[in-house]
Amino acid sequence: MSDNPVHFGGPDRPVAFLRDLLEERVARVPQGGSIDWVTYYFRDRRLAAALVDARERGVDVRVTLDGHPRTPRANDRMIEVLEAGLGEGLRVVRGRLDGTPLGKIARPRLHEKLYCFSHPSPVAFVGSFNPSGDVPETEPEVIEAIGDHDRAHNLLVELCNPELVRDLVEHARRLHTALHGCFDRFASTANRCLRHGGYSVFFWPRARRHPIMQLLLDLERGSRVRIAASHISGSSSLSGLCALAAHGVEIEILTDSTHRRVPVEAEQRLTHAGISLRRLRGEEWIPMHNKFALVETASRKVAIFGSFNWSEPSYRFNREIGVSTEDPLLFKALADRWDQLAAEAE
């Protein structure tokens, strides 16, 4: 069995399966342990209470949270709760230009999803899930805007390599104290790659070339790429995917049903380039939020996952995390999930 299991959420899974997984891990960290989280949305009062309880029993808890996400005030209630319960253990990342046209350039949105725990053994969860739901739900307008992620298609991969977890904890703590400005992409820490145990971890924004797109553009003719993506838009990603198809790489995409996340113009451009794009059927408020890719060549199978979207903000501005690996069991787990999703697609 793989040392790095993958956990899926979705309409076919128990409601709130991934948030329950995180809450269970919080409860297992004893006095003297540590919890380090980085997330974009946080609206779950029970998870907030679990983190505050952990701090009160002597756990070193650090949460780094975006203070002005796409739905601007979505995190405000939990920020108040966490500020009262965690004190300096909460870092809310804000910028003076948030909400203005220059805001995303002046201060990268903190779009990473990273959850690190010291006990019972060191582990870091990386993937697409935000704890953005709440029970009872008192702000249905937020769910209408961002979707119900306790029921949405999401994933978290459990990374267990001790050296890799150590470096990801250091990364989370660096974000907790960083200035978060427009020059972040030029830092050596932003452009590095963490490599441990057959896994490579990349970060954005970065001054160097997009590592995932570069991996794809280096593929030989006849390779196959399958992408599960919630957002596909913007000239950078579209141009890269179309160039890849023109080079003779077979590309299949499964994506969200909404035209906000994948505009009709983007769909038309991709299909005109010979790329197969299918949208998952289902309720608009249950998004297809998975973010992974499967790459197959004559000699390699590579699995890619993380927080990054195939969109201009993710490509150029956001703080994102991405992971690639040739772990065959993880590749199979993602491929099996792909097959399940493809059977539900249009």
Short description:
With 346 residues, the chain is α+β, with helices and mostly antiparallel strands. It folds into 2 domains: 6-190, 2-Layer Sandwich (Endonuclease, Chain A), CATH 3.30.870; 202-344, Endonuclease, Chain A. The chain has 11 helices and 15 strands.
**How many helices does DSSP assign?**
11
Largest sheet: 8 strands, mixed
Q: Tell me the CATH superfamily of the largest domain.
A: Endonuclease Chain A
CATH topology title of the largest domain: Endonuclease, Chain A
Query: Fraction of residues in helices?
Result: 25-40%
Point out poorly predicted stretches.
none
How would you write the strand order of the largest sheet? 8-9-15-14-13-10-11-12
- The Rg value, from CA coordinates, equals 19 Å
Number of strands: 15
Distance between the termini: 33 Å
